[in-house]
UniProtKB/TrEMBL annotation:
Gene3D superfamilies: GroEL, GroEL-like equatorial domain, TCP-1-like chaperonin intermediate domain. It comes from the Eukaryota. Belongs to the TCP-1 chaperonin family. SUPFAM superfamilies: GroEL apical domain-like, GroEL equatorial domain-like, GroEL-intermediate domain like. Pfam families: Cpn60_TCP1. This is CCT-theta. It comes from Triticum turgidum subsp. durum (Durum wheat). Coiled coil: none annotated. Keywords: ATP-binding, Chaperone, Cytoplasm, Nucleotide-binding. One of its GO terms (cellular component) is cytoplasm. It is found in: Cytoplasm. GO terms for molecular function: ATP binding; ATP hydrolysis activity; ATP-dependent protein folding chaperone; unfolded protein binding.
Length: 444
């Protein structure tokens, strides 16, 4: 049977929804449902949610960005709210829950207006006018003198960071905020506007409590050194992304050996080549070799002979951060590095923290741009939630670096906005007045 109209354009199994009840109100309903899920997790006293994703990984958190990402929302209208929350998280680093909750509330009020007979385009005009007026009012509510904040003043940074961290870890903000503030101030560049959140890393170690947490000016690698040398100070560092091992030939070949002497000479040739390469690295002044891939047994033997400490960093992202921390340039293959390709570290040592052996790379002076917050906690779930709180604190610092102006908290600003927008809406005429009076009288 041949389809007519829109049926002839779409493939089998399609769904076509139109009209007020079928499309608009169903989409609004989906947005409200998503908003209802996350709203109960809003604020410092919000409830945690238990989410199990498609890989059967368990998340216990009140972080809306994590909740909506792991829920795998399928409804197209609700997906728009998820995308809005994700954009908010990427741009500001916090406020994803407020984005979804507020959007759900606006949709709920829009539904009332639609049932009253207003057209969606009229509601959009009213909302747009309200947004523009809100931005005008916010400029009046800014606290005087807050635009001149010094982002390197620890006390002021901690004070401003507390509300963001408390929304994730209520009661722990007095312990967490000084740690995050120290880490951020350590890596803040000369121009604060260029602050990069990726420069503040988190190392999660199970065991102990939050009071055992600390800040390291440098990197903490969650693995042991490869060789027997476990501590060196004030050293130059060589980084090899391709690994520290003999490279195989590109083509296959057959070597015919007639005697034991020839076999011994063949083995010695390879051994001499590896020794020559390791010796050239040692002669360049490097005392630490960092490998981005495998470390061969023979190469390790000669590293021990020439008193070289060997670290293995499997992740290319960690390797990149290591280069940023030490100022080294990663070389593709094992060879003698030039002086300007070597990095520097004040100390590289293997330490035992809570039963786990970690390598701490400290750089107090030499051009360091990475700091690590070492978090301690009893379970992985607690550590994951602490990491999210640290992430919120770091993003708050980034926002301070961009624009340090502040407005009153504890919903005082929102109540004032609602009051002024209501007054503004009563001065407007037509459908915009209806939008304003219905929405802004009821939202707060």
């Amino acid at each position: 049977m041949v389809g007519y109209g829109i049926q002839s354009m779409l493939k089998d199994g399609h769904k076509h929804l139109s009209g007020l009840d079928e499309a608009v109100l169903k989409n609004i309903g989906a947005g409200r449902e998503l908003s209802a899920i996350t709203r109960t997790s809003l604020g410092p006293n919000g409830m945690n949610k238990m989410v199990i994703n498609h890989l059967d990984k368990l998340f216990i958190t009140n972080d809306a960005a994590t909740i909506v990402n792991e829920l795998e929302v399928q409804h197209p209208a609700a997906k728009l709210l998820v995308l809005a929350a994700r954009a908010q998280q990427e741009e500001i680093g916090d406020g994803a829950n407020l984005t979804i909750s507020f959007a759900g509330e606006l949709l709920e009020k829009a539904e009332e207006l639609i049932r009253m007979g207003l057209h969606p385009s009229e509601i959009i005009i009213g909302y747009t006018k309200a947004i523009n007026k809100t931005l005008e009012i916010l400029d009046d509510l800014v606290e005087k003198g807050s635009e001149n904040m010094d982002v390197r003043n620890r006390e002021e940074v901690v004070l401003r960071m507390k509300s963001a961290v408390a929304s994730k870890q209520f009661g722990q903000e007095d312990v967490l905020c000084p740690l995050v503030a120290d880490a951020c101030i350590q890596v803040c560049p000369k121009n604060p506007a260029n602050f990069n959140v990726d420069n503040v890393r988190v190392a999660k170690l199970v065991g102990g409590g939050l009071h055992n947490s600390s800040v390291v000016r440098g990197m903490v690698l969650k693995n042991d050194a490869v060789g027997s040398i476990k501590k060196v100070e004030k050293v130059k560092v060589a980084v090899f992304a391709g690994g520290v091992d003999t490279s195989a030939t590109e083509t296959k070949g057959t070597v015919l050996i007639h005697s034991a002497e020839q076999l011994e000479n063949y083995a010695k040739t390879e051994e001499a080549k590896v020794e020559e390469l390791i010796k050239s690295v040692a002669d360049s002044g490097a005392k630490v070799i960092v490998s981005g891939a495998a470390v061969g047994d023979m190469a390790l033997h000669f590293c021990e002979r020439y008193k070289l400490m060997v670290l293995k960093v499997s992740s290319k992202f960690e390797l990149r951060r290591f280069c940023r921390t030490t100022g080294a340039i990663a070389l593709l293959k094992l060879s003698r590095p030039n002086v300007d390709e070597l990095g520097y570290a004040d100390s590289v040592s293997v330490e035992e923290i809570g039963g786990a052996r970690v390598t701490v790379v400290k750089n107090e002076e030499g051009g360091n741009s990475v700091a690590t917050v070492v978090l301690r906690g009893s379970t992985d779930s607690i550590l994951d939630d602490l990491e999210r709180a640290v992430d919120d604190g770091v993003n708050t610092y980034k926002s301070m670096c961009r624009d340090s102006r502040i407005i009153p908290g504890a919903a005082a600003t929102e109540i004032e906005l609602a009051k002024r927008l209501k007054e503004f809406s009563l001065k407007e005429t037509g459908s915009i007045m209806q939008v304003g009076s219905v929405c802004y009288c009821k939202i707060w």
